[in-house]
Write a structure and sequence with these properties.
With about 900 residues, the chain is of the alpha+beta class. The protein is built from 28 helices and 20 strands. Helix 13 packs across helix 15. The N terminus is likely disordered. It binds fe (ii) ion. Fe (ii) ion (FE2) binds next to helix 13 and helix 22. Belongs to the lipoxygenase family.
């Protein structure tokens, strides 16, 4: 176990211990300031394609600056690092480049203005800024261009609080950082990492603050106005259509999923509002459709605030754009190849594995596109000069070709697979629906006491099983049943309400004992339901396999639409919008959360564009079809609660844990060997301790939380705007104390890191081999209203029944290609606790806490390895078993089934 060592950093920390901000730098009191040993090091250049970040160990500290001389003025050199970008002003494209070269030639590339931290004490008014033009001074390295200028700072200017930047070029530029050198006691480094618009597009100057963070009440007097104005600008006024260079964060409902102007079958209801509660998305302000005045028209460009986007940089191969390309350019080619080759010839001697072992000849074309976008899938066989579509063997299949058929593996994956969020403890018997029997038929379950006891006979009675917490359930009955009749109107899919009951064996493994499938009354037919159990004869064994295929399709849908999309990607977007609207970039909580929001808005915009849209990938692959995203709204309405999004509360809500102060994490698990919960709780605690240290430093007392108007506005907006349909719920945590804040922030960071990693990066491992997790069930059970002919056909060739129930060839190919991309870590992935933000590194106490945080995460790697080697933990070890590594913090690039990134970026 981890030792609790953080406490020594966790005592309430007063800002009094820090370098006093109010000392004017010119006062000659340098002896009182302390400086980092790193302060003279140069900013390093991390050789990344785009997401170039601050690198630890090469820090430039923003320190109190005190000139060595007592002359009237200090001369300082500013170096500005600008990244070369494809679309920015350094690109070779277009006439604007010529004008920008001339601008560079005349030394008027960038106008910088130093902003004094404090107002003039004599007059109480703002000091004049100190301007200078920076001109191009050559390349810093292959990715960066350097600009330089000189400032002469008068004696009475005081400390520098910020820099205003005006881009004199005709095109935007990506500003990485600004370094001010010439102070005898160290440089000031201002981290920017931001797109700066051309002044010809927008005359407003950009402001970049130094790395010292301030809650509003402690803002240096000279920065108060800038702090407020920056937030006002980012809020916008709620009108107009957003353009690419905007930095405005605002809310809207999900009304751009449908495309009613293109085809009335592509009309979809608005998600967000009373009828279909939903989190809010970023407002784009596009015009409404002609057919539906409530829907927004779709466009090839979907706005996200400028700094939320991936950049176009040479060599960038992993991004939302890759996914878009895969969907639009690659999938059709793959599908044709798969069909032409008979890839899914189930009657061959090697059914279902051909695509992994031998591959499919793609011929000569279109090799370049395919190979570049899906290098893992498309192999070039050079000696034969051919391109071959060869899917990487998913980990599950690689370790055990028969795993998908096994009941014990079915049970294990509810605890250690890619959807560990659904299993619940059974606390009441008999099982019963809460739906209206008048509409949905009798509420009683077909899973009877007798049926269950047949399965657990000799071990215990059902009464004992409930009492001893031995029964668990995947319950998709009440959520799915209202959609069954609607979905059955669609072509090529079928749906049931389902319940799957598991028994916890003495060795902590789950044995599935019964599956119930239910169809509500409709079209003149009464309710139909049937309970299946692992068979004792050939027919019932086949029916059990078929029932399992249905439940797996339900679980696949719930995983993708709810556990993954709705609870992580979708629920997080309002946090990001509120953070940028209400917390200044100089606010410590903004700086704590910022790395956890990287690229989420862009990946979500892409999802609206090509994944969850009407007729898009999700609708074409999952059982609920066109109702898929609407279904995620139902789950949001009935299940989502902020106070249960943190891991401990989630486990308690499902009966998977109960509070017990005598055990580690204060939680006793209902299933001791629950790999997701075992590793997740350690990660949760590590995050919470880091957040505790961070919050305690800036909020040593509750009054500071209560009086922080930005923080309170932020929390209010998350509740009443971002999650507006839940605004009146009584369960929202109140925000009055540092402890409240720690709880809220830990929950948000857990969702963006641990939760998302657990449900995202195992997708190809487990669902890449579709028999293990079919996304759709296409045919009804042979026992539902059978005809003599259909039953005979089933008896004659039962395997045909299951193959026609599984996804089609095209669906399976799409799933594999998409999951391969979605499960991928990019080479520049940013993992939790790997690197500090510049502002954290510049605050000694925060930096020390971060190093402990980082150390504990590295320790977690070893803990997980040790668990995976423990033969007593049968849900993560054993013959053919895929070890549970999804919450190991770090990973190399690619599809690895491990690694916890800071943010939801894929
Ligand atoms: Fe994801």
């Amino acid at each position: 176990m981890l030792n609790s060592q953080l406490h020594k950093y966790s005592t309430p920390l007063s800002t009094k211990t820090l370098i006093p901000w109010h000392k004017p730098f010119i006062s000659g009191e340098a002896a009182g300031a302390s400086f980092s040993k790193h302060q003279e090091s140069k900013p390093s250049k991390k050789n990344k394609p785009f997401r170039v970040r601050y690198v630890p160990g090469s820090r430039i500290k923003a320190v109190q600056v005190t000139p060595a001389t007592t002359d009237k003025a200090t001369k300082v050199v500013a170096t500005v690092i600008v990244q070369v970008t494809v679309g920015g002003f350094l690109s070779n494209l277009g006439w604007k480049r010529g004008l920008d070269d001339i601008t560079d030639l005349f030394g008027k590339s960038l106008k910088l203005e130093l902003v004094a931290a404090e107002l003039d004490p004599a007059t109480g008014s703002e000091r004049e800024t100190i301007p200078a033009f920076a001109s191009r001074a050559g390349r810093e390295d292959v990715d960066d261009i350097k600009y330089e200028c000189k400032f002469t700072i008068p004696q009475n200017f005081g400390e520098i609080g910020a820099i205003l930047v005006e881009n004199e070029h005709r095109k935007e530029m990506f500003l990485k950082h600004i370094e001010l050198d010439g102070f005898p006691n160290g440089r000031i480094n201002i981290n920017c990492e931001s797109w700066v618009h051309s002044k010809y597009d927008n005359p407003e100057k950009r402001i970049f603050f130094t790395s010292k963070s301030f809650i509003p009440s402690k803002t240096p007097s000279g920065l108060v106005k800038y702090r407020e104005n920056e937030l006002l600008a980012q809020r916008g006024d709620g009108s107009g259509e957003r353009k690419e260079s905007d930095r405005i964060y605002d809310y809207d409902v999900y009304n751009d999923i449908g495309d009613p102007d293109k085809n009335k079958d592509l009309a979809r209801p608005v998600l967000g509002g009373k009828e279909h509660p939903y989190p809010r998305r970023c407002r784009t302000g596009r015009s409404r459709t002609k057919e539906d005045p409530l829907s927004e028209s779709r466009s090839s460009f979907v706005y996200v605030p400028r700094d939320e986007t991936f950049s176009e940089v040479k060599g960038l191969t992993f991004s939302a754009k890759t996914i878009y390309s895969v969907i639009h350019a690659v999938l059709p080619s793959l599908e044709n190849a798969a069909i032409d080759s008979g890839l899914w010839d189930f009657h061959t001697s090697q059914p279902l594995t051909h695509c992994f072992n031998e591959g499919v000849d793609l011929g000569e074309e279109p090799k370049a596109t395919l190979f570049n976008l899906l290098p893992r899938l498309v192999k070039t066989i050079t000696d034969q000069g051919k391109n071959v579509l060869l899917f990487e063997t998913p980990e599950l299949l690689d370790r055990d070709k028969f795993a998908w058929m096994k009941d014990e593996e079915f049970g294990r994956q509810t605890l250690a697979g890619l959807n560990p969020y659904s299993l619940r403890l059974v606390t009441e018997w008999p099982l019963k629906s809460a739906l209206d029997p008048g509409t949905y038929g009798p509420a009683e379950s077909a899973i009877t006491e007798e049926l269950v006891e047949q399965q657990i006979k000799g071990i215990m009675t059902i009464e004992e099983a409930i009492k001893q917490k031995k029964l668990f359930i995947l319950d998709y009955h009440d959520l799915l049943l209202p959609y069954v009749n609607k979905v059955r109107e669609l072509k090529g899919t079928i749906l049931y309400g389902s319940r799957t009951l598991f028994f916890l064996t003495p060795i902590n493994t789950l044995k599935p004992v019964a599956i119930e499938l239910v169809r509500p009354p409709g079209k003149g037919k009464p309710q139909w339901k049937q309970a299946y159990r692992p068979g004792w004869d050939a027919t019932s064994a086949w029916l059990w396999k078929l029932a399992k295929a249905h439940v797996l399709a339900h679980d696949s849908g719930y995983h993708q639409l709810v556990s993954h999309w709705q609870r992580t990607h979708c629920a997080t977007e309002p946090y990001i919008i509120a953070t940028n609207r209400q917390l200044s970039a100089i606010h410590p909580i903004y700086r704590l959360l910022h790395p956890h929001f990287r690229y989420t808005m862009e990946i979500n915009a892409l999802a609206r564009q090509a994944l969850i849209n009407a007729g898009g990938i999700i609708e074409s692959l999952f059982s609920p079809g066109k109702y898929s995203i609407e279904f995620s709204s139902v789950a949001y309405d009935k299940q989502w609660r902020f106070d249960q999004e943190g891991l401990p509360a989630d486990l308690i809500s499902r009966g998977m844990a109960e509070e017990d102060p005598t055990v580690p994490h204060g939680l006793k698990l209902a299933i001791e060997d629950y790999p997701f919960a075992n590793d997740g709780l350690i990660l949760w605690d590590i995050i919470k301790m880091w957040v505790t240290d961070y919050v305690s430093h800036y909020y040593p007392e509750s009054s500071l939380v209560e009086s922080d108007e930005e923080l309170n506005a932020w929390w209010k907006e998350i509740r009443t705007e971002g999650h507006a349909d839940k605004k009146d719920e009584p369960w929202w945590p109140v925000l009055k104390t540092p402890q409240d804040l720690i709880g809220i922030l830990t929950t948000i960071i857990w969702v963006t890191s641990g939760h998302h990693a657990a449900v995202n990066f195992g997708q190809y491992h487990y669902a890449g081999y579709f028999p293990n997790r079919p996304t759709i069930a296409r045919t009804k059970m042979p026992t539902e209203d059978p005809t003599e002919e259909s039953w005979k056909s089933f008896e004659l060739r039962p395997e045909d029944e299951i193959l026609s129930c599984f996804p089609t060839q095209i669906q399976a190919t799409r799933v594999m290609a998409i999951l391969d991309v979605l499960s991928n870590h990019s080479p520049d992935e940013e993992y939790i606790g790997a690197e500090p933000e510049p502002a954290w590194a510049d605050e000694p106490i925060i930096n020390a806490a971060f190093e402990v945080f980082s150390g504990r995460l590295k320790e977690l790697e070893g803990i997980i390895d040790a668990k995976n080697a423990d033969k007593n933990l049968r849900n993560r070890t054993g013959a053919g078993v895929v070890p549970y590594e999804l919450l190991k913090p770090y990973s190399k690039p690619g599809v690895t089934g491990q690694g916890v990134p800071n943010s939801i970026s894929i």
